[in-house]
Structure formats: C-alpha cells, structure tokens
Amino acid sequence: MDAFEYALAERFPDNSILSHDLLEGCYARAGLVSDVRLYEEYPERYAADIKRRARWIRGDWQLLPWLLPWVPRRGGGFERNPLSWLSRGKLLDNLRRSLVAPAAIALLLMGWAWSPQPLAWTAWVLGLWLLPVLLQTLRNVVALPLDMPWEAPYLGRQGQPAPVAARGGDAGLPAVRSIRKPAGDRTHAVAAAAQPSPPAAMEPVQRGRAQPGQRPQRRVAQHGACAAVRAGRGGGAGGRPPRRVAGRRMPLLLLWLLSPGLMAWLGWPPSRQGAELSGTQRAFLGRLARRTWAFFETWVRAEDHWLPPDNIQEHPSLVVARRTSPTNIGLSLLANLSAYDFGYVQVGAVMERTQRVFGTLEELPRHRGHFCNWYDTQTLQPLPPRYISTVDSGNPAGHLLTLRQGLLALADAPVLAPHTFDGLGRHAGSAGGRAGKAPAGQRCAGRCADRRAGRVPRGACAGTGAAHAYGR
Q1: In DSSP terms, which residues pair with 338 in a beta bridge?
Q2: What distance, in Å, lies between the first and last C-alpha atoms of the chain?
Q3: I want to staple 225 with a disulfide (CB 3.0 to 4.6 A). Which of 113, 257, 317, 387 is the partner?
Q4: SS3 state at 71
Q5: CB of 66 within 8 A of CB of 91?
Q6: Is the peptide bond before 270 cis (omega within 30 degrees of 0)?
Q7: The whole model's pTM is what?
Q8: 10 Å Cβ neighbour count for 212?
Q9: Residues 6+ apart with CB under 8 A from 292
Q10: H-state helical runs in 267-389
Q11: How far apart, in whole angstroms, are the C-alpha atoms of residue 376 and residue 415?
C-alpha cells in the first residue's frame, strides 16, 4: 500500500477520472496474476447493460489525455507523461474497443452507399458480428458439463445482431460527452458512479417507457437508425441504387430501427404468478412444520447441554449423533423464534431456551474467540482434529444478527402468541394424522414426550424423516 500511494501521490486531478483502475495499474506497474479469476454479474436487462457500457466507455475516453506527451496533474498544471508505450497501448486498446460498434455501422453504410456488391458487403460485416457468438456457442457445446442441460449454451445468444446494431449510437454518445468536457471540469465529470445494477425484480420498470439512463441512448439509436434508412434509400455506387439493392437493405435497416423497442420489450420483467395453496396443501405444510419443531423440542435437551445433535438415524436402529457445530447451534436458536411465530411456544419458552443455549456457549472452549467446527454435546470438548471453519463461523454470525432482531421484537409482543390457536390446531392435526395412518410405536413425532419421560424404549422410531433429519 505504501508503494501504491507513493506512485499515485498528487498524480490525478480531482473528480475527473471514472475508470481509474486501469490508469492506477499503469502508474503502479501492477504485475500479472494468472491464477486469479474474477467474475462479474451480467445485467438482467438491456437498459442496465447500456448504462453500464456507457459508464465504461465514458471512463475510457476520460483517459484520452494520458495518450499525449503531457498529462494533467492534481491542483492544475501538466507534467511529462510517465506511462510506457505498453501502458499507452492498453489505454488505446480500450478506446478501440469502444469504437467497434460505431465502426461496424459505418462499414455497413459505406458498403451500401459505394460498394458495387452491397449484399456481399452486408454478409461480410454481419459475419464479423456473428462469428464470435457462433464460435463461443460451438465451444460450449463441445465442452458441455455433464450436469448442464443441452440447451444451456444457446440461452442468451438470441437476437445478438440487433443489440450490436443498436449499440452503434449508444457507444458514441459517452465518448462525445467525455471529449466535449475538459479534464478539469467537475460538472458531471464522474456522474455515472460505478455501482452494480440492481436485479430486474428489484428495479421498477414501466412498460413502454425508457428508464432515465436509457433515454439518451435510445434517442441516439433511433435517430441513427432513421438516418441509416434514409441513407439506404439514397445514393449508391454510381448514383441512385436500383430497387433490388434498396430492397435488400431495408430488412436489416428496419431491424435496426426496431431494435431499441425490441430490447426494451425483452427487458420487461415477467409477470408474477402468485402461488395459491389449497387447503390440503396448507394442512400438510402445517403438520410438517409441527413435526419439524418436534425434533428441536425433543432432542435439544439437558443431557446434551441444550445443544442440538447433528442428526438422528431412525432405521434400522436409533442412533443420535451427539456432536454439533456452530451452524447447528445458530439454526436451533432461530427455530425457537420460528416456533413462536407458528404459535407452538410462548415468549417465556423462547427466552428460557435461548438463555440455556447461551449459558452453554459460555462454557465451550474457543480459539482466539472463535468456536471450533465440531463439539461433543456431552463433554463440550472440541472433536479432533480441531479447526476453525469459515462457513461455520460466518453462519452463526448471521444467525445471531437475525436472533437479535427477533428478541428485540419480543419485548413488545403480547402475552399470548398471535398464532397460538393455529399452533394448537396443527398439533391436533398432526396427532390425528399419526393415529389414523400408523400403528402405535411406529411414528414417534407424537411420542416425543413419552421418550423424554423414559416410557419409550431405545431403538424405537425417532420420528419422521421430515421432522428429525436435521440437515446440514
């Protein structure tokens, strides 16, 4: 960090550089890291993709002064450009990439206006657009993973020429804005902050209306398409083109003209279909929830210091895995809150069970404040080999944050849980379903109290799989 700050001290003017990562790397002479792969989430809508590309292109063109012999400094003034020719080549390559779409549109217009074979010219330019997509699709088909459906490589590859054509004007507008504004102008110099695009489900979209950041790009694309249509109807090689030549151009021009609206239509979020559960389904889920709580009610007990076992084996004989992890403990604490929400327990029971677990947590051995990954629920000693897990340390952190909010809400909760009678109904329904479907002694979700009291011999069924298979 000291070397990085030294290399960049007093180098750049304030509020004038958006794409700073490449320029900082050129100054700091960052090395190549070949064993690190970075992933970025792709925008879910074309409007978000256009705004992101506009931000990238504008940031690239703001670095245009660093291709010159003299570059601006912080606080005003200029200094000799310290960048190597290799670094300047990187900056120049970014500018070249931003001009690919406008150049392709210009090539089409030039071929239609002056080429004696406009159809072959058009096929050649379209091949430049389609060939990378086809090669990537073929590669994905050949190297298709075994767990991926066969149609996956083709998804997201539809309609590629239309967006590329529409980007011809979208790419030019940010570049013009960056060149028009001087490097020291602070007004909207870094207006497009580098923020991730929200998911389509979270960003409201009004059908038939462009988003605020998309309107300038859509106007440019539409005006450019209209100009291209006029050019296609205008002069060609040796004067006015024949009707057959103009007829060959018009389908592609109309596709370009309609591409902004097509992309906006494809970007509309799908209509949400609400799930309406039947009474039978709700009753089934209610019984399943009650039986699931029966696991925590039965097996989070004093013999295990109020810690949940990792799992219960029912068949062929009862086996209790008397070990637990921080993730299991955190989920058991949240199960208490869920039981209150379902009406299975009251506030006093939630507080009592929570206090017991926290009392045990105070006794567990730790390593520099971190819980070990596995503990014996009888001796409270870490199981060998002792180690700290990133996952099982992060999970309970999120569980405790959620638990805190739930306990704070219980301070103002009524004496009787709002869904107490619903919980009693589910309990009665669960007991009635067991009595009518299985002989006595084969389903233990309703016999948890008997087992606690010692009236059920060991080796009997430990409960339904849904209730007692405590998954990790």
Answers
A1: none
A2: 41
A3: 257
A4: strand
A5: yes
A6: no
A7: 0.47
A8: 9
A9: 466, 467
A10: 279-299, 326-342, 347-363
A11: 36
**93-132 pLDDT, tens digit each:** 888 888 888 888 888 888 887 878 878 888 888 888 788 8
Long-range contacts (CB closer than 8 Å, 24 or more residues apart) made by 348-354: 350/407, 350/410, 351/407, 351/410, 353/300, 353/306, 354/403, 354/407
Q: Give residue-wise pLDDT tens across range 337-387.
A: 999 999 999 999 999 999 999 999 999 999 999 999 999 999 999 999 999
- Would you say 171 and 98 are in contact if contact means Cβ atoms under 8 Å apart? yes
- Report the distance separating Cα 8 and Cα 184, nearest Å: 18
Q: Tell me: pLDDT of 283 over 80.
A: yes
Give 396's pLDDT tier (boundaries 50, 70, 90). very high
Q: Name the DSSP class of 382.
A: B
Structure-block tokens of residue 87:
């670094």
- 32 in Cβ contact with 86 (< 8 Å): no
What single string gives the DSSP state of each residue in 223-276? HHHHHHHHHHHS-BTTBSPPHHHHHHHHHHHHHHHHHHHHHHHHTSPPPP----
Q: Which amino acid is present at 35?
A: D
**Closest-CA residue to 290 (of 426, 464, 419):** 426
CA neighbours within 13 Å on the CB side: how many for 461?
14
Residue 436, classed as helix, strand or coil, is: helix
Per-residue confidence (pLDDT) for residue 226, from 0 to 100: 59
Burial of 230 (0-12, 13-18, 19+ CB in 10 A): exposed
112, 125 in Cβ contact below 8 A?
no
d(CA 283, CA 273): 22
Two structure tokens written together for 419: 């869904």
